[in-house]
């Protein structure tokens, strides 16, 4: 999958500006490029690369840093077309295939297979991740009051526990004495 090749074919229905870019920039050079090499060229900068998202998303997640992922932008060049199953007219298998598709969609098996074979789109998480640059050093004097408050809480809860044990023992001895007297 990582050695996928790209072959650019421009049809008449595509944007004329895109056709001009392809004719002037791509056709004079080699049309074929390894997906890994194309993503590396994107990382160097000032390069656009057209490939299957299933391939490029894996590579981008592996090669790019979080900051570099935030600098990327994706240009939609083709409409997403849904596919279907071709079944002969009045075929006895038509309902069977439709029911099977509904079951696959309802149980989530199709989504599971898509998540296995296609990587997620790289998300910009520069502000959400912890990196060495984003870490702030904290000294003990900055959190001394919090530690003191925590220690006071431990001592208070331990004192309440001891008092509850003493009261419970005192109540059980009093009930034992009352039971013996009666």
Task: Characterize the structure shown.
By secondary structure, this protein is an all-alpha fold. The protein has two domains: 16-117, no CATH class; 136-182. 57% of the residues lie in helices and 0% in strands. It contains seven helices and no strands. α2 (35-44) crosses α3.
Please describe the structure with a list of short key phrases separated by commas or semicolons.
mainly alpha, single chain, 7 helices, 2 domains, 182 residues
Q: Kindly estimate the percentage of residues that lie in beta strands according to DSSP.
A: under 5%
Mean pLDDT: 80
Secondary structure tally, helices: 7
Please compute the radius of gyration using only Cα atoms: 33 Å
The description of the largest β-sheet is: none
How many structural domains can be distinguished in the coordinates? 2
**H/E element string?**
HHHHHHH
Q: How would the global form be characterised? A: elongated
The secondary structure category is mainly alpha
Annotation, overall tally of beta strands: 0
Question: What are the low-pLDDT stretches, counting only 5+ consecutive residues below 50?
Answer: 1-8
State the end-to-end distance.
Answer: 87 Å
Query: How helix-rich are the residues, as a percent range?
Result: 55-70%
